[in-house]
Amino acid sequence: MVANEELTRNELAHRCGISLGTVATILEELGHLGVVVETKDSRASVGRKPNIVRVVRNAKKILALDLASRNFAYEFLGVDLREEGHGTHRFEPTRSFEENLRAMLREIRDYLERIGLRDEAIIGVGVSVPGSYRYGIDRIDNSPFPELHSISLKTLIQEYFSQPILIDHDVFLAARAEIQHYPEYEKRNVFYVFLGEGVGGALV
Q1: Distance between CA 103 and CA 106 in Å, rounded?
Q2: 43-97 pLDDT, tens per residue?
Q3: What are the DSSP E strand ranges found in the chain?
Q4: If you average pLDDT over every residue of the chain, what do you get?
Q5: Angle 9-16/20-33 helices, nearest 10 degrees?
Q6: Which residues pair with 53 in a beta bridge?
């Protein structure tokens, strides 16, 4: 929907390979969040006019947290995934990992207050972590930062943000972002390798 200015429900169902019922359910949720609007198609000259779906680009924001290194970073993205603001938190070695994380979250809250961005304008929080996240027990495994293993990350972030939170492995998220630049990526299996502070891989 971001790439195409105007689409009908039928067009969305066809392009995404899902049923009209699923499209209706998703659009209802996105409409409730204020991310999309539907209007009648003025181009249709005969018969029942279908609804046209449009993305409200500047209405809502997504908060992205990058915890893949000790120098934490955050970004605010529009629903079209364009960056609208960013910042970093320099890791203070005299503090624990959790104390540094809490300090960054407080910095973000202060930033939101300064620019007058209300909580309702943020529809979700995405978190990139250096390890496998286990949703059932709210824990991270196999991280190069042992301090992360004992932190209930989602629970901690919820103390500062009440929005839905998505946490996943940094390499998997990077792979998902990169493969979208390739034609018909959804029909392919891709093995992604990351070489940085460590070595990681993801099969998408």
Answers
A1: 5
A2: 655 667 778 888 887 778 999 999 988 889 999 998 888 888 899 999 999 999 9
A3: 7-8, 36-40, 51-55, 61-66, 72-78, 83-89, 122-129, 132-134, 139-141, 165-169, 191-195, 199-203
A4: 85
A5: 110
A6: 7, 38
What was the pLDDT predicted at 52?
A: 87
Query: pLDDT at position 190, please?
Result: 73
Domain 7-55: which topology? Arc Repressor Mutant, subunit A (1.10.10)
Please answer whether residues 49 and 110 qualify as being in contact, where contact means their C-beta atoms are separated by less than 8 angstroms. Answer: no
Burial 120-146 (b: 16+ CB within 10 A, else e): eebbebbbbbbbebeeeeebbeebebe
Domain boundary assignment for the chain? 7-55, 61-173, 177-203
The torsion angles phi and psi of 108, rounded to 5 degrees, stand at -65, -45
- Domain spanning 61-173: CATH 1.10.3370.10: no
117, two tokens: 């961005």
Longest dimension (CA), the chain: 70
